[in-house]
Amino acid sequence: MEKVSILIVGKYAEIECNLDRFRDHFNVLKLSDLSDINKIDEPELKKVQAIAFKGHSTLNSNTLKKLPSLRLISNFGVGYETINVADAKAANVLVTYTPDVLSDDVADLALALLFGVSRHLLQGDDWIRSGSWREKGEMPLNKKISGSTCGIIGLGRIGFEIAKRLESFKIKIHYYSRSRKNVSQKWIYHKSPVNLAKVVDNLFVSLVGGEGTRGFVSSEVLDALGPRGILVNISRGSTINETALLEALEKKKIYGAGLDVFENEPNINARFLSLKNVFIQPHQGSCTRETRKAMGELQFQNILECLAGRKALTPIPEMN
Amino acid sequence: MEKVSILIVGKYAEIECNLDRFRDHFNVLKLSDLSDINKIDEPELKKVQAIAFKGHSTLNSNTLKKLPSLRLISNFGVGYETINVADAKAANVLVTYTPDVLSDDVADLALALLFGVSRHLLQGDDWIRSGSWREKGEMPLNKKISGSTCGIIGLGRIGFEIAKRLESFKIKIHYYSRSRKNVSQKWIYHKSPVNLAKVVDNLFVSLVGGEGTRGFVSSEVLDALGPRGILVNISRGSTINETALLEALEKKKIYGAGLDVFENEPNINARFLSLKNVFIQPHQGSCTRETRKAMGELQFQNILECLAGRKALTPIPEMN
Description:
- Two copies of one chain form a homodimer.
- Chain A has about 325 residues and is α/β, with parallel strands linked by helices.
- Helices cover about 35% and strands about 15% of the residues of chain A.
- In chain A, helix 11 (about 240-250) links the parallel strand 10 and strand 11 (about 255-260).
- In chain A, helix 5 packs across helix 8 (about 155-165) and helix 9 packs parallel to helix 10 (about 220-225).
- At the A-B interface, helix 5, helix 6, helix 8 and helix 12 of A face helix 5, helix 6, helix 8 and helix 12 of B.
């Protein structure tokens, strides 16, 4: 019997994508980038029943119409804002993603970013390497985190994990979310992100991406956070008004920012590189071997289950 | 009435030492370093009743015999291994220190160091600045921390705070201490640091300094930790056999090390600077404005209480 065809899209590390196993089950087509789709012959494309998708390119009806047999897009990652869900629904294509397995890593990195900014970790390293420790003595004093008050914008899976960790640092938790969540009574809900930013020392952004949250963290939110406040973003660059953020950082309207995500990655705004009050990382929230292996496994299992006619493990919420 | 004389020793940031308030209460003598003590006239020295001590120079009978009226050494910090306690006792001089107020900051930094190593934070920053993100895509995968097993060598105040924080990262806690502690039943006690290192993924050193713990973390402990293990030291450089540590790092016998403390600070071994698997900081464990202010306050209150004939707030354990 002929194997079912699937299309693997994106650049995967070896541990993320077990090609041998895919080939045991499927006829595998591969693309580094979706924009090369026309390099695959039309008859081959017409047989593709599932896409294992990891990529930053847009996946919408333009692609879907080339794939008439497509039943599933199995996204690698928890963010799927590059996939046009309405188009997928219209084409009767299920979309799955890989939630939960990456929440721990992203939350861990969120805390690391907070300390990167507050404890001046880059300056500390440089204080040793430049000889300043020897010549000038102690490095300049920095900022305490334990015992502070922190706010979470977007209390989904990752926001929840961030809050749980922060609590162990004797930190009081406030949050904004579209609706009040069924969480610890000690966590204080705010209906407005500006009001949230006003009462907290430090602010984490863990919103979903996409058009619905574009520029959600506005200049008003940053002003409310104020000159002693640290902003951490591990969600998507789009959730923050980056023009406002750069101005706030340059004019020291806020204390600093820990950023794993940016607009226009990887071609990020060069102004970030001259700032001393940022701690930046190259969108590596889920970038551990352990987690990427788990994400690849979940992506594979979604394909396996769905194409066998069983229930996919983790469809995106819009598909429920 | 003539004010009581006190001697302030060390280099203090402004926030650490409220000189005006000291002068309200006392006749204040000052030295940046104890080795300059002979610059103060003998009659002045003979009147000194307390030292506000912040310093890395040795304070023993050589100094004490110049200060016949001395009743108190009020140390700034929780480590006081440069003060010869036996000599102080013999001269009937009380020694106080500043515990508790700095435990949060040191524990915070311990976790930051762990993530610095595991999540390759310096490489992440460099991945952006060097253009690699743009040219090569994602940075190389790194190492997950949440859900791992961690060991604490020395479960004092700071070790306890580290463990409490780690628990919120779904981390299982093991510890070594001279005796079993009255802590969570879930924390597993080990009588031997080698056995502890064998069973954990990552290892924190939070021992007291001084001769009693010199080289306590031996090559055997490092071998037991193994090539996937991260070592974090926020105690004193002396607690680790640094020759063994450098060899372990260079030969990748362990995964990496997060180090806030070193032998011979600030003239640390240059071999640390060429290693890619370390995350280093210039002994800044308690280096936040909030904590240094609190330490200065406690140092002052110990002097105020003691010289007024009342009970000092925080005498070192050997004085109880």
